[in-house]
Amino acid sequence: MAADSKAKLLEDAERYVLHGKIRLAIAEYRKIVELDPDDVLILNTIGDLYLRQKDVAEANRFFSRVAEAYVNNNFFLKAIAVYKKILGSDPDNVEVNSTMASLYAKQGLGMDACRQYQRVIDLLEREGKTRESLEIHEKIAELDPLNIGIRRKLAQLHLAEGNGEKARLHWAGAARAQAKAGDAAGALQSYRAAIELDPLDLESLKGFFDCSLRTGDPASALELLKKSVAAAPDNPDLREMLGRACMETGDTESAIKACKVAFSLDESRYQSFFPAAAALIENGAYDEAMECLDTIIPTLITRRETGRAVDLCEQILGKDPEYAPSLVRLAAIYSATGDSARCLSVQDQLADHFMSQGRPIEALEQIEKILHSDPDSEKHRQLHYEAFTAAYPDVPYAPPAEGPGEAAAESAAPLAAKEYGDLSGESPSENVVEVDLLLNYGLKDKALSLLENLQRRNPCDKEVRVRLLSFYKSEDRQAEAAEQCLLLAALYQAEGSEASCRNYLAEAGQLDPGTAGGEIDLAEYARSRGIDPEAVKPQFKERSAESPAEEDLSGDLLDEFMAEGPLPSGGEGAAADGAESGAFAAASGKSLEEQFQEVDFYIRLGFEDEAYSKLAEIARAHPGHPELASRYEKLGGPKPDAGESPAASAGGEIALFDHPETPPDDGLQESFEIVDVDAASDPAGHGDTAGTDPFFNEMFADLMDEVRSPEVQEAARASFEEHFSLGIAYRDMELTDEAIREFEAALKGIEMRKGDPQVIQCCGMLSTCFLKKDMPRSVIRWCQTGLDLTEPSSHEALAFRYDMGIAHAMAGSADRAMECFDGIFTQDPGYRDVAQRIDELRSGPNGR
Questions:
Q1: Is residue 203 one of the residues assigned to a domain?
Q2: In a domain, 386, yes or no
Q3: 87 lies in some domain
Q4: Model confidence pLDDT, tens digit, residues 638-661
Q5: What is the pLDDT of residue 805?
Q6: Residues 531 and 450 in one domain
């Protein structure tokens, strides 16, 4: 019925139109719309009829309904056509113009949309509606980011509204658009406006600097950069740009200074040194160029990016083949990167150069380096003779040392090993104790230099990186500290220690929030820093799977040595008197000889009760053995009765320490008190008889086999590193008592083996801590323990003997102090101030 009615109405309306009866036709069409409101054809027809009647407002009302229907059904082009019809009769309609612009944008017709929005802006500005026009400007900027006029106008509008940040963004956007269009001068004006709003806007400063170079006016950029650097002196980006600007203005000296500051703030800024060095070389200033490269060569070696430094050195040699400093740097780089063939070739050139210049001493140094690497070279042996006789004509000829273990090998070590570190080796860091002592005596620069050398020599050495981390944190160098945390995390991840890895990752995030969040590929990060994580895994497994058959007697003593109970009486005095640098015996079972070795070890460490107990055990099994008497003689005779103090029986053995030391606190007093509280509390002298029970010994042996399992040892190592790191941190914070506790805790549960760098380092740290607390007997005990674990000629042994000498001097034993210092002086006369200390002892009241 409705369809029939609509058809009848449509027929009547069309007839009215044919007869020119428009009003009647409109009435019939509106009846149809009442029946079907969504009939866009009828709505459009009604609009056309109203236009014929010159009723624009009513026509546009029906056209708008048509356009809205098309928009709702996503027929945007049809809607645009209808809106154009509306604008044909009402061109200043802001709403229709704006709607039509948005439809152009939805359809992807950006240029048409911008033109339509511009029409809206003109209409709004005519009406004085500034705020509304700002929003339309923003829409145009979104559609056309390179519209310079709109960007500049937006900057001005936002500035007028008091929104400086948005104004700065649009000035910078306008400048980028102008620079891209080739209008460098206009871009400079826009960039300057942005920089005036924010002098630390790095992006605008960089853009301004680049445009100033294009216009040939770097001085203007230099002026702005100086102001920005004054506002933020610790910003490496600004410092680096300032260096470039100084280079462009010909001020090379200031450029290098700026680059050095940037490099000190961020080591990754080494690239800026290359153009500075190249400019110096071009000007013939080779010495300054070498000084420039010296700043970054260690970093280049660490990052395996020495190619450009080598090119610059060779560029100098191309201009002046006899320029020795360039050859010296090349030799250092080749040595540090393990390129022995090129290193020898350059050293050969250096030797020939120095000989031709009449400088035989320098030539001799290079020849000895060559012979250290190639001892069979007859040519260089002959050259060595010629150089030596020329350098020392009145001295009998001394041939070069054979082998790297002799004293001369140290002097013949490659320059890179002394200045930049040797990366070709994978040996553990044997000088870490020396680092700790240098830090303890306040020689931070030397300690840092040694640490960096050790890091380059063996990038996988975690002990070195732990100290670097502690050093950087103490110096508030957060970026470098975070880098060490990430590298430690990578090393622990490679070893399979996920807990330690997570801890260091968390610490890195605290030090440098930029490393927090997001996934970091630790393996790739480590490789970018010259570390191969795959090389770490076998090292860790090899250590953790170490055969327990090689038994170290110190492992049996550790619980006694680090016990929370009292120290056996006479311990420290005996350690001082019975000091012998003996080696630990390795055995799979405890023969009679090994049991006597165990007694000797107890005696060396001053554990008299343990020594007496072990001797009694041996005496029961082997009564009348001749070795028993000699051991009792070392202890001052057979063990006294319970009523007699063991300390008294030692008599003169502990006379060195007339005054008991003041321990750090109550907790440490338990470990280092001279009086044997256990013995005093047991007047009957029964003590603990477990050690003499064969069944107990068997149980103890089974327990020790379990303790020495790879899994337990791995856990013990992880615990050691955690406590040791805490000890280092406490020591850096001058919390010596807490540091001692942590270093002691680090040694608990770890098996002490000869040559173990971790245990040696811990002994060194304990000796330095007790030196700080003026407790010489404790210093002597830890130094002696460290000496038993080190090679006699090692750096650590020298350090331990040095501290032991100081402790003896503090305790009033000048003779024993002299023995320690004399031994050091014989091995290395230039070691620290040992010569001065010997002179002081000799000139003292008890001097010889």
A1: no
A2: yes
A3: yes
A4: 754 433 333 333 333 333 233 345
A5: 92
A6: yes
